[in-house]
Amino acid sequence: MIIFNYEEVERFVRKHASARPAFDTWYRRTLAANWRDFDEVKRDFRSADRYKACVIFNIGGNNYRLIVKINYRGHAVRIRKALTHAEYDKEKWKNDCQQS
């Protein structure tokens, strides 16, 4: 997959350095993937979930969340938000997940 907007993760891990190894693992696995649908995402990341147009990944043993939009036809993942679990629980990220 092609990953866009990884700068969002870079900004996040500058504040939360202990999150870097987990996000690096997600990055490597996603870059090597060739997902055609959400079922294939779920096969690779069992805790992945969907909300409207977004896919949510639990990162780092459920400590962090990564909100993305996936274009399966274009083999592209666009990162929307990297969040702590507490930030995720505030649900402000949901505005980024409207259907497109």
What does this structure look like?
With 100 residues, the protein is of the alpha+beta class. The chain has a single domain (2-87), classed as YaeB-like fold (2-Layer Sandwich). 34% of the residues lie in helices and 29% in strands. It has four helices and five strands, in the order βαααββββα. The chain starts with a strand and ends in an 11-residue tail after the last helix.
In short:
By secondary structure, the protein is of the alpha+beta class. The chain is 34% helix and 29% strand.
Rg over CA atoms, rounded to whole Å, is: 12 Å
Share of helical residues: 25-40%
SS-derived structural category: alpha+beta
Number of strands: 5
How far apart, in Å, are the first and last alpha carbons?
Answer: 20 Å
Overall domain count: 1
Side by side, the strands of the main sheet go 1-5-4-3-2
Instruction: Note the beta-strand portion.
Output: 25-35%
CATH architecture: 2-Layer Sandwich
- CATH fold group: YaeB-like fold
Keywords:
single chain, 100 residues, alpha+beta, YaeB-like fold, five-stranded mixed sheet, 4 helices, 34% helix, globular
Task: Give me the secondary-structure topology.
Elements: E1 2-4, H1 7-15, H2 20-32, H3 38-44, E2 49-51, E3 54-59, E4 64-71, E5 76-84, H4 85-89
Parallel strand pairs: 1-5
Antiparallel strand pairs: 2-3, 3-4, 4-5
